[in-house]
Structure formats: structure tokens, C-alpha cells
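Sequence only, no structure available. Ideas?
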Amino acid sequence: MAAFSVATLLPLPLLLLAATHGGLYGVAALVYLTVFTAMMDKLLPKNWRNRNPSAEFPASEGLALVLGVAHIWMVIAAIFLIGGGAVTGIDAVIAALAFGYWFGHVSHPNAHELIHRSDKQARQLGRLVYISMLFGHHASAHPKVHHFHVATDLDPNSARAGEGFYRFALRAWTGSFWAGLRAEHRDLRRAGRSPFSTPYFGYIAGAGLILLIAYAIAGWRGVAVHLGISAFFQMQILLSDYVQHYGLRRGIAGNGRYEPVGPQHSWNSPHAVTGALMLNAPRHSDHHMHPMRPFPALQLDDAVMPILPYSLPVMATIAMVPTWWRRIMDPRVMSWDHSGAAFDYGYGEEEPA
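Reply:
I predicted one. C-alpha cells follow.
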């Protein structure tokens, strides 16, 4: 837990200094979350250690709550300081990028952890994190669509083989929004409740409220800053989904249904620093097989799980250059394609060189 706590909480004072003083503080915050993390992942031994999956980790619950509350305060700080003009010009851009990286690399994995908790208040905090980033529907679409249909064409957030990131991002954002809404309406019908009880009203109202707060704090500049950071946050979520499920598909079982989700249906990463910063989110296969398992107990086994050649953030960067991405990943997809489905580039994109 010390590694998780240090990796996730250390950037906070740097971010605040970046938003108040700019200069080297902003550079230090951004470098810590990008270049330094990638460099340490390269230098340190990979973390293949698996803790007892039956053990309890009460400290992880406390850290998740601290990070959830810290996120809300950091959103307000970003609007007040960057939107309010405490830093300007290139210093403001660097500070906004640093905040966005922390939200995407720490707040998202933590909110993801919270929305899978059995405790209602923890789930509400996770939803609030996504709402504050104008992405509230993810709190419905992720557990009710993605986890049920992962590694099939029924899941908007499972990238197909040969599909470039930008095409995927548009399809995944809109597809998950509507699929999550349909899933909520289905559950409300089964419970005999009105469709007007859907949490989507809260997601949309909450997004409007945070934008009003941004305007009240720092005017249109505050709104622009928050829209920019939120867009960057959402792009990082879509990149994570793209990388972690690219090209992997579940086969059809003898009963005509999709086979159960297995370790071969998600890409994973054993990199130590990224794992600590992202609360073990790169151990993605085990999360899909055991969604309620706390993040310190997630398992990793390269004998049965596809492993990315580089850390998750590095692979996300590569994914933004589609031909480079396909040159690295398509051969790996073919070697892990246990579904028996033909490897296909038929999504309107050219084959990679």
C-alpha cells in the first residue's frame, strides 16, 4: 500500500504548485506523470508478484476514498487557479495537461474501483468523479454493458482488430452512452420503476452544474479550462479501453452463446510504477474475471494472459499513431486470437504497412 499511496498522492503538491507558480513546478509535475514514470518502468524489475486474492485490504478502501475526495478538490483547484489566471500562457497549458494526466491516470482507475464496490456511498463517490469530468454515463455503461459484453461486437468499448483509435473513440463514446442508457432502462423496467428514474438525468444535470460552477468561479475561461481538461480525461479512458481490449474476441460456445470471459480477453502490463500509479488497472484480465476483487489483490499470469510489450501509458501513446500501433499489435492479436474468428481489417481502414 505504501507504493500505491506514494505514487498516487505525490503529484498533488506538484500540481498545486504548477497551478500557482508555473515554471519548473509545472514541468516537474508533467514529467513525473509521463517521462519519469515511463523511465522507471523501464529501469525497475517488472512486478509479477501476486498477493493472496482472498486477503482483505482495508487500507486500499481508505486510499480509494481519499483519492475520490481529493479529486473533487483538485477539480475546483484547477478551475480556480488555472481558469482564474494564476498562471497564464504556456504555464497554464502545462498545468492543465498535468492535472489532466493525474485525473486520467489516478482519478479514473480509482473511480473505476469505487463504482465496483458493494458500498453504496463508495459507488456514489465514483459516479461523482465521472460526473465532474462530464463523463457520468461511464458509471452505468462500464458495469452494465462493458463487463457483460466485453470482447464481443456487442460492447462499444472493445476495439476490433484493425480498427484505428480515432474511429474507435467516436464509436465507443456515442455507443457506450446509448448502450448504458438502454441498460439502465432495462433494469428499471425489471424493477417496475419509472424510466424517469434513470441516473442519466443526474449525469446530465451534474455536468451542467459543474460547468455553472466553473463559470461562477472563473467565467468563460474557467469553463474552457474545465472542458479542455475533461476532454483530455475522457480521451485517456478511451485510450485505456482501446489498448486493453484491442482485437481480442470471445468465441461462440456449443450453446450458441459467447464463451465466458477468460484471462485471454484483456491485455495486461506488469510494469511496477505504472501499476502503482494506476492502482493495478493494467492487471485487467483478472479484474474482468473478478470485478469485485480489490485492486491490491489483482492477479497476473503471463502464461494465460496477453501481455503488452510496453506499459499501458506508453502503449496509449503509440495507439495515437494507428499504423505504428497496428505494426506492433496486430501480430500479437493473431497469436492470442483464441476465438477462432477470422482476423479482419474490414472496418473501412487500410491494412498496416
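Residues 339-353 have pLDDT under 50 and may be disordered.
Hope that gets you unstuck.
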